[in-house]
Structure formats: C-alpha cells, structure tokens
Write a structure and sequence with these properties.
Strand order of the largest sheet: 1-4-6-3-2
CATH architecture of the largest domain: 2-Layer Sandwich
Largest sheet: 5 strands, mixed
Structural class: alpha+beta
Shape: globular
Strand content: 25-35%
Helix content: 25-40%
Radius of gyration: 19 Å
CATH class of the largest domain: Alpha Beta
Order of helices and strands: EHEEHEEEEEHHEEEEHEHEHEEEHE
Length: 306
Amino acid sequence: MLPEKGTFLPRIDQSAFTKELCALRGNLRFEEPLVCHTTIGVGGKAAFFFSPERPHALVETIRCCRRYGYPYLLLGAGSNLLFSDCGYPGLIISTEQLRGITLAEGSVQVFAGEPLPALLNTVNRAGIRSLNFLAGIPGSLGGAIAMNTGIPQRTIGDTIEEVAVLNPHGEVMVLKAKDCGFSYRQSRILEQRLPVLWARLRLDGRPYDRGEILTHRRASQPLSALSAGCVFKNPRGLSAGRMIDKAGLKGLSVGMAKVSEKHANFIVNLGGARCAEIRKLIDIVRQKVYKSFRILLELEIEVIDG
C-alpha cells in the first residue's frame, strides 16, 4: 500500500506506455473495478491495472511509470485503503502474484505480496509460533511492513532483519531494521513511499497462540464484515475506539456505511457503500470526538483521491 500520487493525469504516449507494460511479465487490465481489490469493497475503476509476476517485473513497471511521469499506486491486499468513487486515473500495480516464502534457520524470506495468513500457515507448519501476533490481520507483507502493523506488545518491525525496497532513483536497496525508522503505525518506508520487494524476518521471541488471538479478534472486531481495518490511529495512551464509543457514535450510519457496533474504530460497508458516504461518516466522527475530548483523531487508513 504505497502510493505515489499525481495531482493530474499527464499527457503521455499511452500506446508506448502500454507497449512497455505488455513487454513485462504480468497481467495488464483496463478500467478495472477497485471494489474487487479492497477489503472494504469500495472504489471506482483504475485506468490501468497491472499484476507483475516477478519482483524484477515490479521494479521495471515502477521505473516505466517514473520515466513517463505517470501516477501509480502499489496495491497489496487492499486493506487500510479507501479509494475514491471516481477510481484511480493512473496505474494500479498489484502485488497479488508476488508470492513466495523461503524458510531458513531462524529466519524467513518473504515476497511483498504474500498474504499474512499464508505466511503464518507456513511458519506454523514448521512449528514456529513467534509470528502469530499477526493472526487476524488481512494484509500482505509489504503493506504490513510499511504500516508496522501488529499488537501493542509486538509489531512486525520488531521481527525485521532486512527489507529490499526500490529507492526514488530506481535502485534496489536493502535496508536493515535500524534504517527503517519503525514506530507506531509508521516507518521510513511509508514516509518516503519506498516500494517493498521482499523482506527477511527473524523467527525468534516468545510464541503466541494463534487460536487465542483469532478468538479475541473475532470477539472484539468485525472481521467478517467489509471494512478497511481500524480507521483512526490511537492517540498516545488512549483508545480511538473507546473515545468514539463514549461520544455515542457506535451504530451511526450514513447511507450504507456504518460505525461498527462491535468495535467503534471500524467503519463497515453494509453493501454498496460509496466512498463519499464513508468520508462523510469519518468527518462526523472526527468532529464529534473533538467536541467531546478536544482531540483530533488521525487517520490510520489512507484515502486515495481520484
């Protein structure tokens, strides 16, 4: 989930641009509905949608976009994202085919598009339980690293040995964990929009009970509903969900978008919700929480304007 946004669609030779994309190993589609590629099921169409088959093809796709000055967005599992109803006028680069896991002694190397549940299945079959704190998180590896996802006791950044990224000059760099600037729902990778290619994770630390964590998440979060995950970051020492609940906003709806009654920091799509409805609901929640607590909630999800 690493966008490089453009404020307008540049005038380019689209035939030359698409010819270069078609020469790469991958699947190119036009006018692709984004509702099919996000966990909240919202968004218009992407002008171009490309799924590279190999990390090298991903690198060349991004280099191609940069040469043409064409806006693009790197898309993983589609969580933590809210697309405009107008869609995206540039190129969506999906990492859905960039999957691969290599287990080694004490570590695992994983491609950026690998879904977290699949990663946990692999390491659990090998008898390793140290990554189970990621249970119930629907994202893929690249987005999880950029957002430094996890639980209060441990985040994915705590497990990183190294991460391969593409820098703004089109060069592949391998960053050590200390160079990634991991903090709460943040990293240098996210701040600088560095596309993740693969990462190596340490398989050490305390074991976590996957079933226990999943049971807790299912009891406290609307995992079966269409959502983008937690909408707001927790203010330091506070819970955004509890503040929204205390402001009396659980169950509040705008159109087909609703503040979850199970966890107030989730907005769920009841079926056919539009981005405009969700954004209006976000604005109402922020205003009412500010009025009640004088705290302006910061978004954890990323809104992608068309």
